[in-house]
Design goal:
Helix content: 25-40%
Shape: globular
Radius of gyration: 21 Å
Structural class: alpha+beta
Order of helices and strands: EEHEHEEHHEHHEHEHEHHHE
């Protein structure tokens, strides 16, 4: 739980007299995206740093007061399929595969991401070294569905989408592509990540109160250089999983826990998890993202690849 504004004040008795160099930090936890963009790009605005949707890049570039900082990221956009109590059609693996194959990843990257990312064959970010290695060295044998069959499978499919407002730019791009196959999106939009968590984390036990088929979550990497931050959504005994029972995947997850980072066993089981998740089409895959941040022109700031924002290093 938190208030809409959080004020942090430096400890005057901190042991190292050189730090902290910032006296206070104000964190806004629930801002309207458009209002926040107006604030950081104006002379009178109070915001100094904020992650932005890719479609707002031009606003920052044209600003006299803010600059754009772009870097590689191991964060992800995860688009869950509700295989617990969502649209019954999604239980059909071929329909999930068809939804994935219907998306033109290159067009998503060019027109929705504004080229701020890289195409990944998996839900996990291609910026993880182990994921990039597997993508380059192993061949996933995917059965390609013909265009006519994709249309037959998807035509008339109506999906309820639950998302934060900041991901609408991504969903509108996906919506545009899937419309030609007869897919219809119905949106429920919130500006609070808490609302997303409340529904996502209660679906596994069939206690969600929001009817959803696709749910979008900003999966910020908190583990660093280890794709467990994506894999834990496949652990079916946990609250994050919305995929139903999968004993084979659970075997892979258990092996993953006991394999040594960097070992051949670790590489093999990571491949198995990536390939299993892709074969089962457990999520709607989208390109890996860059970290795109608007920053006050007077600040020097270098982002981390993961979800931590090191304000103390400004």
């Amino acid at each position: 739980k938190q208030t809409e504004k959080l004020e942090l004040v430096a400890n005057p008795y901190y042991w190292n007299k050189e730090f902290p160099k910032i006296k206070s930090i104000t964190v806004y936890t629930q801002l309207d995206i458009n209002e926040a963009i107006k604030d950081i790009t104006s002379k009178e605005g109070e915001l100094d740093l904020m992650p932005i949707p890719f479609n707002k890049k031009l606003d920052i570039i044209l600003s006299d007061y803010a600059k754009l900082i772009v870097s590689k990221s191991t964060d992800n956009f995860v688009i869950f399929f509700n295989l617990i109590n969502g649209n019954k059609n999604l239980q059909n693996k071929k329909i999930r595969q068809a939804l994935n194959q219907a998306l033109n990843q290159e067009n998503l990257l060019n027109f929705v991401y504004k080229r701020e990312g890289e195409i990944s064959p998996f839900a996990a970010s291609i910026n993880y070294p182990i994921v990039k290695k597997i993508a380059n060295e192993y061949k996933f044998e995917e059965i390609k569905i013909l265009e006519e069959e994709i249309f037959t499978l998807l035509n008339g499919l109506t999906l309820n989408i639950f998302t934060q407002d900041k991901f609408m730019f991504l969903l509108k791009g996906i919506d545009f592509q899937l419309k030609k196959y007869g897919v219809v999106f119905n949106y429920t939009i919130t500006n609070s990540e808490k609302d997303i968590y409340k529904q996502l984390l209660s679906t596994n036990t069939n206690k969600n109160t929001q009817n959803w088929d696709l749910l979008v979550w900003g999966d910020d990497d908190w583990y660093y250089q280890n794709p467990w931050t994506v894999f834990f959504i496949y652990e079916t005994s946990g609250a994050w999983a919305t995929i139903g029972r999968d004993d084979l995947m659970q075997d892979y997850i258990q092996k993953y826990f006991v394999s040594k980072l960097g070992s051949s066993e670790y590489e093999e089981v990571t491949k198995d998890i990536l390939f299993r998740a892709k074969d089962m089409a457990y999520t709607l895959r989208v390109p890996s993202l860059n970290k795109v941040i608007a920053v006050n022109k007077e600040l020097l700031y270098i982002p981390y690849e993961g979800g931590i924002i090191p304000l103390w290093e400004i």
